[in-house]
Amino acid sequence: MTLIHVPKPDVKSAMNPDRPVNALLKAQIRHLHDAERNLPLRHRTDIYINAIKTEGEAAKYMRQVTEAIHAAHEAAAAKRGRGIAIAAAADEEPPGKAPRANGIKKKRTGKRGRKT
Q1: Is the pTM of this model over 0.90?
Q2: What kind and span of H or E run contains 3?
Q3: Domains in the chain, number
Q4: Per-residue pLDDT for the chain (116 aa), expressed as one digit of tens each?
Q5: Residue 75, domain extent
Q6: Which 3 state secondary structure label does DSSP give 89?
Q7: 3-state SS assignment for residue 30
Q8: What's the rounded Cα separation, in Å, for the pair 62 and 69?
Q9: How far apart are CA 97 and CA 31, in angstroms?
Q10: Is 65 part of a structural domain of the chain?
Q11: Hey, CA dihedral for 42, 39, 77, 65, is it positive or negative?
C-alpha cells in the first residue's frame, strides 16, 4: 500500500479572524441558529446571523450559542432535580401466570373450543 504524506496545517493560518466565512462555517451558523431557536427566550443571543461576515464573528456567535445551550440545559436539569421520579408501578401478576405480550386477554371458550 502506498503511504500518502499529509502535511500538518500551519497553526497561525488555520484560523484567521478577519477572513470571510466560507460555506462550511455558514452551514454551521445556520445549524446553530436552528438549535438556538428552540431555546427559551432568556437564553437566546439575539444575533442577526446574516450580519456575520468574518471567521472571528462566526467564532464569537458559535461560542455564545454553545454557552447558551449549556446554560439552558443546566437550568432545566436544576428545575427537574436530581434522579428519576417513578410515578407508578405496574401491578404484579399472581405467581405462575405470565402477562400476555400484547396485553389483550384471551377469550374464554367452552367445551371443544366453542365460544360461549
Answers
A1: no
A2: none
A3: 1
A4: 899 999 888 887 787 899 999 999 999 999 999 999 999 999 999 999 999 999 999 999 999 999 999 999 998 888 887 666 666 666 666 666 666 666 666 666 666 666 65
A5: 16-80
A6: coil
A7: helix
A8: 11
A9: 52
A10: yes
A11: negative
